[in-house]
Design brief:
The protein is an alpha/beta fold. The chain has a single domain, classed as 4-Layer Sandwich (Metallo-beta-lactamase, Chain A). The chain has 6 helices and 13 strands. Strands 1-2-3-4-5-6-7 form a 7-stranded mixed sheet, covered by helices on one side. A hairpin with a 2-residue loop joins strand 3 and strand 4. The mean pLDDT is 95.
Length: 251
């Protein structure tokens, strides 16, 4: 069953987090519903497809889906794309960096005319009477990477930024400090540099974020959001912590 992150009249935000992944990494998929249409965010791989598709059809018919939105092009983000191309007529929004790679997930010709390359500066994507704002999040962790700000709910869908490992995704983190150990190793490895994190932190401080929801692990709300922004803005990671030892010829 999906977790309802937000519900106000004709606008809902749903998170699917308990889909059976077998040996795959735990991941969250998201459905935005607005006035009889909607968008799926980071729809995931084939292991996630059935539950997300059924959940969507419980809200509106498949032909009413207005957008398939991807933060980047990893398999746990869009490996199920071929099936979404068959079941719906929705366009795919993804960084222009990955625009020509996306067809590799589908049978020949299925993505023709249906890929919208998001420019580096981001854009606004209409979903019913609301909008998703594609926010630049390049190198966090992908070269072409976006997060999605839902203006109506105040939820920032943050992709791989904010991931917690081993934390029940059905919980909500309201105090970051006990959870830093579940986040630190992931962020030090998967985020490219502290410089990029500082730039991101400066951008999002002006947003009225009600909830920050990553693609893996648990959402953050309340004081944890500002605590997280403060924490990552001083974090050394990626190329900051690389040394010659990491670039040695194996014995």
């Amino acid at each position: 069953m999906p977790i309802e992150l937000f519900n106000k009249g004709e606008h809902r935000c749903l998170m699917f987090c308990d889909i059976e992944h077998g040996d795959g990494v735990q991941s969250n998929q998201f459905l935005i519903v607005d006035n009889g249409t909607g968008a799926v965010i980071d729809p995931g791989g084939n292991l996630a497809y059935n539950d997300l598709y059924v959940g969507m059809t419980g809200c509106f018919p498949p032909h009413r889906l207005s957008a398939i939105v991807a933060s980047h092009a990893d398999p746990d983000i869009i490996a199920s794309l071929d099936r979404w191309m068959t079941a719906t007529s929705a366009p795919v929004y993804i960084s222009k960096v990955w625009e020509r790679f996306v067809p590799h997930f589908c049978k020949p010709g299925k993505t023709a005319g249906r890929i919208v390359g998001i420019p580096d500066g981001g854009m606004r994507i209409a979903v019913g009477q609301s909008k998703l704002v594609a926010l630049p999040a390049h190198f966090l962790h992908s070269e072409g990477n976006f997060q999605f700000w839902d203006e109506t709910s105040g939820i920032l869908f943050s992709g791989d930024l904010g991931v917690s490992i081993g934390v029940d995704p059905a919980t909500t983190i309201t105090d970051l400090r006990p959870h830093i150990p579940s986040m630190q190793a992931f962020h030090r490895r998967y985020m490219v540099s502290g410089k990029v994190l500082k730039l991101w932190a400066s951008m999002v401080r002006s947003l009225p974020i009600r909830m920050l929801v990553p693609q893996h692990g648990a959402p953050m709300a309340g004081a944890a959001i500002e605590q997280f922004i403060d924490w990552v803005s001083t974090l050394e990671c990626g190329i900051d912590v690389m040394t010659q030892r990491d670039y040695s010829i194996p014995a």
